[in-house]
Amino acid sequence: FMSYAGAAYCSPNSIINWNCANCKGYASGSTNSVYLSAPAANAAGYLTVNNKNKQIVIAYRGTKDIFNWLYNIIVLYYPARLPYPYLGAQIHFGFYTMANALYEQSKTAVQNAINQHPNYQLVFVGHSLGGAIAEIVAFKLAQDNVINWINTSVYTYGQPRTGDLQFAQYVNSKPWTFTRATSYGDIVLNLPPTALGYAHNQYNMFINKNGKVVKCST
Description:
This protein has 218 residues and is an alpha/beta fold. The chain has a single domain, classed as Alpha/Beta hydrolase fold, catalytic domain (Rossmann fold, 3-Layer(aba) Sandwich). It is 30% helix and 28% strand. The protein is built from 6 helices and 12 strands. It has helices at residues 2-7, 12-16, 66-72, 93-116, 129-143, 165-172; strands spanning 31-38, 43-50, 55-60, 77-79, 90-92, 121-127, 152-157, 163-164, 177-183, 198-199, 204-207, 213-216.
């Protein structure tokens, strides 16, 4: 799903018409694209439908400029408001703010797509900051019963830590498919730091310095 993550950086028109540089390979032939944008938060993404593979794909743009990083470096937490035993679970405030800015648009687009394709799998993707947004939006949609955990997959590339350990444990407990692709030397993977209470959730497909893919639990 890397092509979908890459396409999130393309212009709105090229995404809507699905003729961007990354709209090829596995992503070719996608249709009914809807652009998602929250200018005030400088956040963006899109929804598209892959009829060949029976998937509804929702992708979010990663860090594009310094404005995004102002959100990235905020280390305050937002309470996740989860049931016992995850009562103290928290999410990175900056990531949550950007995800929340796109949430209502995402919710409407997803609901419309599900109505048209009720048997399609839901796939959320994102690179870097976009990965954190993808996780939070998918989490919120599932919490609001808009989507089913079991029919949802999340694939992220170079995603930072989204929340604290309790939040990671909660999403790990859910019956969705979650895969983080990471690579050697990417500093974003270590942000925000564990010293501030942040933690990654499963599962990590790590590409080491020799180019070998290693499956890690965290």
